[in-house]
Protein 1
Amino acid sequence: MALIFVTGSDTGVGKTHVAGLLARRLARDGFTQVIKPVESGAGAGRPADAKKAAGKWAEAHTLLTLPAPIAPLAAAKKARKPLDLALLLKLYRAVPQAPCRVVEGAGGVAVPIDPKGKDWADFAAAIKPTVAIVVVEDRLGAINQARLAISYLRRRYDGPIGVWLNAIKKPSKEVAAANRAGLAESWIPLLGESGKGEKSARFHFLPR
């Protein structure tokens, strides 16, 4: 089973956009799922991230929805709902398996999803994905963000890992070139690049 875990250096860096690009590519090889273990702030006319990423080519699963648009633990407390790593793993493992699966975390990689401080690095270690992708905004500062996020993730997760640069606003040629050189010099694999729209995607690995 192809299993890609998508996390980010921060919230708002384009994880859902990248998850959608990956799901569309994986769907060429077979039935594909997009899974969001927990999402806060969905509803009230705002489509769930999993549904946005899945589009017409994948099956969407949001395992735990919390109304308040705040950090998951705070949203769970406000909704008086339980939230911890064990619960998310139980919900995740209850989803029938598919040949291809994209799992998107909420917020950045270090966002707590457990009262004991466990986060998406712990989740990744538990589900053992084919590869873990850290989405980083393609801008000045991306090298620092990528190094911090990758270093943090590697403390708990020892599987294949890399960065996806997503340009929310197109960077200058000088910044874009420096970001790619900085990743290479830091021995961080660049697994993909994207901007706005589906045609902007460039895959530097074969999702399968």
Protein 2
Amino acid sequence: SLVFPAWLTRPIKVLQRAATRLSAGDLSARVGLQRQDELGALAQSFDRMAQIIQYNTNDLEAQYASASAARAAAEAARCEIAEQLATIEQQRAMISEMSVPILPLNDQTLVMPLVGALDSTRITQVQTRALHSIEKSAAHYLILDITGVPVVDTQVAAGLMQVVQAARILGCEVMLVGIRPEVAQAVVGLGIDLGRITTRSTLQDGVSSLLRRIYRQEMA
């Protein structure tokens, strides 16, 4: 059998061990042979290849870590934004309820005092809150107090009439109070027909009138 000299077999074994370590995931594996022959050139080529593999792998791992951190930061930001939006929505709902409050006068009557200008958005809020509260409480009467509404135009009157009509369908009668002289003149001037709506000039008059009516009904 052939016997190869140690100067030939030893570097081959070193190269083999380095290749085994590299294939097993040890990217620091190097041959490290300093020879001026073909085996030395092969060892140097292996070491350069291993160095390139290690550099590229480290670079990919760094990019992956950076991307993972960016994804985690984006997810955290998304969750924070979602929480902020939820908080804003809760605050908006609270402000909406405060802008169109409904107060129970007794187990049959609700009072809705309106303050400030009524644009289309607030009119919709008034309608929604009024009908929801009537349905929830099964109230028989709703007093709409417009003392604090500076202007009653066609849009406002139409919106209030829709509340009246929808409330009637739910079995609730609406009384409109707080009609100041200038508001009454504006309503007449616009040709708005309040129809069968019960009206009173002040909230106190409306409440007193309604309580007397309820009392008479209970005594009948």
Protein 3
Amino acid sequence: MKKSFVISQQKIGFILLKIGITGGIGSGKSIVCKLFELLNVPVFYADTAAKNLYNQNAFLKEKLIAMFGSELYRNDVFDKEILKKKIFQNDEKLIALNSIVHPIVIEESNRWMQAHQEFPYVIKEAALLIESKSYLNLDEIIFIDAPVALKIKRVTQRDQLSEEEVLLRIKAQLADDVKKRFANHIIYNDEKHLLIEQVLLLHQTFLLKRK
């Protein structure tokens, strides 16, 4: 019988292993997370959670309107593009925004992890995992590494942005070399290394830690 790579339920008494995944724009965080999900590993997407909270969390909505104006919500629905324009290349507003949003998202992710205690390990995906300091609540960090040229190619095709716009977004993020210092593992998404092999190796590593 072939050995299964899909995780089974966690044994009683084990402490949930919490893994973080981060990387720069265009590095391929989402595709790596999808591969882990195929192995039945639950993934918390911080950006998706934040989008939901923008609409569902009354406290957050009130703070955002006070900070950026009511035009942030069209027909009572949060407009991410308007927020992007308001904070782009404005460090003061970005810091103020993050000081409000990050603690709420971290609280939401903690609740989510509590609800997934039956699994050997779970993953939290966040572009700002280091900047938000949410990595402090995790056990191990995976950094997704990719060449700048490849990142630019991916994002220009995905988001219909110019090369200059993508470069500005890359420069606005914490440098990859800095993020790597916080990583326990690196996955190379450079079209030279097979992603699935790297994911399976880490998957087995994490499962062994729960035995």
